[in-house]
UniProtKB/TrEMBL annotation, chain A:
Superkingdom to which the source organism belongs: Bacteria
Family matches, as InterPro entries: ATPase_AAA_core, Bact_Antivir_Def_Nuclease, P-loop_NTPase
PANTHER family recorded: ATP/GTP PHOSPHATASE, ATP_GTP PHOSPHATASE
Pfam family, one: AAA_21
Protein name (Swiss-Prot/TrEMBL): ATPase AAA-type core domain-containing protein
SUPFAM superfamilies from the UniProt entry: P-loop containing nucleoside triphosphate hydrolases
Family matches, as Gene3D superfamilies: P-loop containing nucleotide triphosphate hydrolases (3.40.50.300)
Residue ranges of every copy of the ATPase AAA-type core domain listed in the record: 193-264
GO molecular function ontology, one term from the record: ATP hydrolysis activity
TrEMBL record, chain B:
Tree of life domain: Bacteria
Taxonomic lineage: Bacteria, Pseudomonadati, Pseudomonadota, Gammaproteobacteria, Methylococcales
Protein name per the record: Uncharacterized protein
Length: 316, 71
């Protein structure tokens, strides 16, 4: 049932990573570490590895991570798809599931893309690359800006298809009991409060983030969900509720989740709720730098995390 | 992450013993923030290589996050 889960990965080359190895991943994985250590890059490397079923899905993944990082610049300066792909000079990963690589080579002023997916390798001339967006619907990334309307609407359809609107509304009411319902009316996600539907932008960012996570967990059935800065916009008093929801729903939908946090409260809540639910299919990974300034991963399983928390260790 | 690990007999939760050690560190004008305590439970756990505290310590030592251990 969990055969599709990523349990270990070797990042041979990607951004700040060279010959980096991490293992011990479970169904729900929290990632921590200091600023600029490479947490988001680590998740991006995993995302590309899991999203790339063929050349088009690999190129789409590379394009989408650049787009997510720079979408605000693209709104003001316009987007060049080729540039989005070309920013990635080197990418090579090997996981328990697959091996993927993408290299750009330049020889005699001729640029080529060298792409390998497991044993298959192709070389494409820059001029011949036809960028076709092919997105894997069960592999999603929620960045630290959160989802925009069209992404939320698209993923809400997964809830509709599974007739789970009632379940979603129950979660939303638990989050804020003044909200009666969530619906997509026209092309706008809306929430009903005091008998009247209002655009979701009129509510706080936390509510949108919360609803996005629920929709994504349903949409990524038997797949993968990546969440950058998971506690963005969420009040500390809601953290246990969020983890309870994630641990329960990810089990129900068999979705593997990777999330990043800087928050001590978030980590404490993660350990507390896992213990309460006796949910042992979890891990906490800290990215650190050794004396040689190489990035290393220290992964704690359920038992180790609970021990660390009981000892009040500084584990972030 | 802390660079000094103190392994002691007793409960995993902070005890009066390690509170006393913290006071001593403070009294000596040393940095308490560098120290993490590892409650080993009963004495026999010190000799079990698969005990959870050792599993936690091993990667931290390998990756230079801990460079001094006091038993």
């Amino acid at each position: 049932m969990n055969n599709h889960f990523l349990t270990d990965i070797e990042i041979i080359q990607f951004k700040c990573f060279t010959d980096f190895k991490a293992s011990g991943f479970k169904r729900v994985n929290l990632i921590g570490g200091k600023n600029n250590i490479g947490k988001t890059a680590f998740m991006e490397a995993c995302y590309i590895n899991l999203h790339s079923k063929n050349i088009d899905t690999l190129i789409t993944a590379i394009h989408s991570i650049k787009f997510r990082r720079e979408n605000l610049n693209f709104y003001s300066e316009g987007i060049d798809d080729q540039e989005c792909i070309d920013h990635m000079r080197n990418y090579a990963t090997k996981s328990n599931l697959s091996e993927k690589s993408f290299y750009i080579t330049e020889k005699d002023a001729k640029k080529e893309y060298k792409i390998a997916i497991n044993d298959e390798e192709v070389i494409i001339n820059k001029k011949d690359l036809n960028f076709i967006v092919e997105h894997i619907d069960t592999c999603e990334f929620i960045d630290n800006f959160g989802w925009v309307n069209h992404e939320l609407i698209e993923k809400f359809q997964a809830i509709q298809k599974q007739d789970q609107e009632h379940e979603l509304n129950n979660f939303v009411r638990e989050f804020d009991n003044s909200i009666e319902n969530f619906k997509v009316i026209g092309d706008k996600p809306q929430c009903k409060t005091n008998g009247e539907y209002r655009d979701i932008v009129e509510f706080g960012d936390g509510l949108r983030h919360y609803i996005s996570i629920i929709c994504a967990l349903y949409a990524c059935e038997n797949g993968y969900l990546f969440i950058d800065e998971i506690d963005n916009g969420i009040h500390y008093s809601q953290l246990d509720r969020l983890w309870e929801l994630i641990l329960t729903l990810s089990k129900k939908t068999n979705c593997q989740l990777f999330a990043i946090t800087h928050s001590k409260e978030m980590l404490e809540s993660f350990a507390r709720v896992a213990k309460k639910l006796n949910e042992q299919d979890i891990s906490y990974t800290t990215l650190v730098k050794n004396k040689q300034q190489e990035i290393k991963a220290i992964t704690q399983d359920y038992e180790m995390l609970l021990y660390s928390m009981a000892q009040e260790h500084e584990v972030r | 992450m802390k660079s000094i690990a103190i392994l002691h007999e007793g409960n995993a939760k902070p005890t009066h013993d390690n509170y006393l050690v913290r006071l001593l560190i403070q009294h000596l004008n040393l940095d308490n923030n560098l120290v993490d305590f590892y409650g080993m439970g009963s004495k026999s756990n010190f000799f079990k290589s698969d005990y959870v505290a050792y599993q936690l310590l091993k990667p931290k030592i390998t990756d230079n996050q801990i460079n001094k251990i006091l038993l």
